[in-house]
Amino acid sequence: MVRRAPFVHARRALERVAFATESRPAPAGLRRALRRAGLALVALAACSSAGDPEIDPIEARVEALLDQLTLEEKVAMKGGAALVPMDGIYDAGGLERLGLAPYRMVDGPRGVRSGNATAFPVGMARGATWDVELERRVGEAIGREAHAKGANVILAPVVNVLRHPGWGRAQETYGEDPAHLGAMGSAFVEGAQEHVLASVKHFALNSIENSRFEVDVQVDERALREVYLPAFRRVVQDAKVASVMSAYNQVNGAYCSENAPLLTDILKGDWGFDGWVESDWVLGTRSTIEAANAGLDIEMPLATFFGDELLTAVRRGYVKARTIDDSVRRLLRKHVEFSLDAPAPRDASVVESAAHRALAREVAEKSLVLLANDGVLPLATGARIAVLGPLADVANLGDHGSSAVTPSSVVTPLAGLAAIADATLVETSSAVKGFDVAVVVVGLDADDEGEFIPPNGGDRVSLGLAAEDVALIREVAARVPTVVVLEGGSAITMEWIDDVSAVVMAWYPGMEGGAAIASVLVGEVNPSGRLPSVFPRSADDLVPFDPTAEAVTYGLFHGQRALDRDGVAPLFPMGFGLSYTTFEYSNLVVDGRTVTFDLTNAGEFAGVETPQLYVTFEGSAVERPVRALADFTRVELAPGETRSVRLEIEDADVAYWDGGWIVESIAYGVEIGRSAGEIELAGRM
In which element (H, E) is residue 70 found? Predict the structure, then answer.
């Protein structure tokens, strides 16, 4: 382990203090910075007299604590405390004798799962914003509420690749592309860790729900490194996530909780991860000796394999004492680094505060994707609006499993529209006669997809709407101009799309979702969401997906990349989304790895465009994607405004894996697109 001189820690810690005090308030981050600065300065003073300039103050504190622990106490720290949580919070890893507070873990991919809390749009919706800074603010808000509830670990974010939209927990992740996933997940972690530890999940290759406890995912090293691990690597190395949750499934014949190539060789070895790994709950741990030796640090939620059996295994030499010490060091390190022995005061007023509700609405507004529009949107002022559909007046927040959140109130689509327009709920398709337009709200709910807890949730076997929803859409569209608002966690096929006037993908939009939907439909907000995954014309166009599979093989291609390779046109490409204004791209300049161009709002409404930078590979020695996403940004422009946009290409965007990362000396193409299927500018690097 690299040990830095204490004056370096002091300087860096004090720089963080200066930054925190000069920018927006961040009490928890400030406390940690002050704590670290104090430790560093104390160590510096001690080292000045002792003559040892190479002691890290955090590591010194960790070693001092470790020296006081018995073997029994070390093992006891490696298991959860109870099968059933207290107020949604699970404890693990503490030691009362030394005043070490336990890790207090709570679920939270879209809000804190403890009592009432702010329900944000699901991860897939937030992925559709393509707004990294916004996701940082969401992470900060969820972390703040978790701390207010008494937790110090938030079990989020999810950065598993959406390999197929049928995955029941698609809603929890951000999308299908590794670069996009890594950017969004890192932002969440950076925000959340201002207040609590974050735990990124599920490591790794978790993308089937129904057979998640047994399925063995076979994957070669190249696909593993290039497709399924980059988002985790970025969250670990760039965002410095404190904890990682191992997945239920197997990878190449070993369960993830006892998979040494994943946990030790890659995560803790190659990536230098210095935090701790906990298992997924109950069936996430399958062994004692194998799991301990592979690098699992905490068994959750209860010490079944890591209790007396682990203590016996150490005494008999099947698990080395130094293995236990390394594990406990990791637990102590984050305890000291995050000052869990001196937590900031809890502030219950932040939970469902006006600021957090406003943030939830902002996210929902920015996540809505306008997929089709013949000019009916935005709705005309004074239009009489018929609202119907099974989800029109339902609080549809998403999965009812571990990611569930319970807000004190929810704005439904009907309530949102009725608050700002002449909107009326009607019961049958014939009742729309006499209205100017109909808004039909249909889609999916927790019975259709989510965590597989029979009889609810699980993977989807069909990507289409229910037959009765399709019939309703067509009946209404035959009578009046029709806007379809879709709710759900990922792609929905739309054989009915040519029958309607407009389609909006609203995802599971959170507690303020109805207000956001209404604002977009009437034009108070210009839609700016972009698809974080491809929407196919048919499920047959995608890679195979079997929710009951006991073994699967994953390769380099899925989603948009697979369709590009096969020359199949999607219904909507990744990155797609319409606006009420138009944008023009011009003046591309490629200077090494830096790409600049001009973006102009050529329409009559202020709006947001999300330019995407793709790289192409000319003459590569190995098979490559037709195009790979490298960078993206959101640009807000007034009507007629032009702005220069700058995007960057990194080594990771062009490298491939062959026992190590290789950047070829070949020609790389540069493409700027409004989506993966709409390239506006092209050049060479």
Answer: none
Q: How far apart are CA 184 and CA 69, in angstroms?
A: 39
Stated as kind and residue range, the H or E segment containing 310 is helix 308-315
* CA-to-CA dists, residue 8 to 5, 12, 36, 236, 435, angstroms: 6, 6, 11, 22, 69
| Res 30 pLDDT > 60 | no
Measured CA to CA, the distance from residue 650 to residue 137 in angstroms comes to 25
Question: CB within 8 A of 49, min separation 6: which ones?
Answer: none
Options 1.10.260.40, 3.40.50.1700, 2.60.40.1220, 1.10.10.10; which CATH number does 358-554 get?
Answer: 3.40.50.1700
Looking at residue 171, the DSSP 8-state letter turns out to be G
**With left for phi above 0 and alpha for psi between -120 and 50, is residue 52 left, alpha or beta?**
beta
- First-residue to last-residue Cα distance in the chain: 38
Interatomic CA distance for residues 475 and 342, integer angstroms: 62
Nearest to 156 by CA among 144, 172, 180, 170: 172
Q: What does DSSP assign to residue 253?
A: T
Q: Is 131 a catalytic residue?
A: no
Mean pLDDT in residue range 607-633: 98
pLDDT in tens, 250-301: 999 999 999 999 999 999 999 999 999 999 999 999 999 999 999 999 999 9
pLDDT attached to residue 320: 98
Q: What is the residue extent of each domain of the chain?
A: 1-61, 62-339, 358-554, 581-684
Q: Could you confirm whether domain 581-684 is CATH 2.60.40.10? A: yes
Distance CA 421, CA 383 (A): 8
CB atoms within 10 A of CB 323: 16
pLDDT for position 43: 43
C-alpha distances (whole Å) from 250 to each of 167, 202, 256, 284, 502 are 17, 12, 6, 10, 43
d(Cα 240, Cα 275) in Å, to the nearest integer? 9
Q: How confident is the model at residue 52 (pLDDT cuts 50, 70, 90)?
A: low
Residue type for position 649: I
Contacts of 265 (CB under 8 A, 6+ apart): none
Q: Phi and psi of 471, rounded to 5°?
A: -60, -40
Query: Minimal CA–CA distance to 126: which of 88, 163, 158, 161?
Result: 158
The percent of residues in the chain predicted with pLDDT above 90, rounded, is: 91
CA 292 to chain centre: 28
Q: Which of 280, 297, 448, 564 is catalytic?
A: 280
- What pLDDT, on a 0 to 100 scale, did the predictor assign at position 53? 53
Please give the helix or strand (H or E) that residue 243 lies within, else none. Answer: strand 243-246
HSE of 181, CA atoms in CB hemisphere, 13 A: 27
* CA 671 – CA 684 distance, rounded (Å): 8
Query: What is the C-alpha R_g of the chain?
Result: 26
b/e map of 226-260 (b: 16 or more CB within 10 Å)?
Answer: bbbbbbbbbbbeebbbbbbbbbbbbbeebbbbbbb
Task: Check if CATH label 3.40.50.920 holds for domain 62-339.
Answer: no
E-strand ranges in 75-221 read 90-92, 103-107, 153-155, 197-203, 216-219
Half-sphere exposure of 261 (CA within 13 A, CB side): 13
Task: Give pLDDT tens digits for 128-167.
Answer: 999 999 999 999 999 999 999 999 999 999 999 999 999 9
CA 90/CA 284 separation, integer angstroms: 15
- Average pLDDT score, the chain: 93
